[in-house]
Amino acid sequence: MTVTGPGERPFDAVLCDLDNVIRFYDLTLLTALEREAGLAEGTTTRVAYTPETDLPLLLGLIGKEEWVEAVALELGRLGDLGEPVAEPRARELATALAEAPSRADAVVVALLRRIREHMPLVLVTNAPLWVESDLESLGLTGLAHHVVSSARVGVAKPDPAIYEIAAARAGTDAERCLFVDDRTENVEAAVALGMTGVHYRGPEDLRRVWDSAAVGRPSRSPATESATSRCASRSASPTATDARTSS
């Protein structure tokens, strides 16, 4: 776990990422299809989650079918990633990604429900327009007090604006927010605004920081100090992709 922030202090709200913190995708079918097509595992996601292909979806500018078309088109001209994939295989791969089943981490959900009892909880996610129906299908509609989705607000992490929107929804200043995300650049952007950041790797990260906050002492360590220095000395990456297989 890495907890980073501009000082030891309690927080008044938790802002939490969705994908690869709460929700995880099962790409078994996609991997099998890639193998059949002679592609390296992960080729489809690498194509799909480039900003040029993914960002219009995450900003609500296109829907699922248009995204599938865009991914299939890019698979048809792979270049350095492998041999171009012809239709209908390219569409089959893109559809398998778009329709991949997902699950919620029960341990994380339970921890977040505990947090919600004590302070505002806001989900902050780079997600398409149908994220609300996804949450409903996972039984997570009431998990957070608010959901700030990039497709709904028109801006995506790590743009500072989406963090400011989330803090406003939580009803507190950025400096009083704890931000949890699996992508380093997203955490660094939050820290740059004065938030306390948790680079998420597993449920223990969330449990540890919550347990320490319960007594008013957010946990810090030598690794924390090092991460804080790094966040202060370098700017966040400009990518805006909340990749479902790596974010």
UniProtKB/TrEMBL annotation:
- The region called Disordered is annotated at 213-247
PANTHER family annotated for this entry?
Answer: ALPHA-D-GLUCOSE 1-PHOSPHATE PHOSPHATASE, FLAVIN MONONUCLEOTIDE HYDROLASE 1, CHLOROPLATIC
Concerning InterPro entries, the annotation shows: HAD-like_sf, HAD-SF_hydro_IA, HAD_sf
Q: Where is the composition biased (Low complexity)?
A: 223-241
**Per its UniProt record, what Pfam families does this chain match?**
Hydrolase
The record's section on Gene3D superfamilies has:
HAD superfamily/HAD-like
Q: Which residues form the signal peptide?
A: none
Name the source's superkingdom.
Answer: Bacteria
* Residue ranges that the Swiss-Prot or TrEMBL entry lists as coiled coil: none
This protein is called Hydrolase
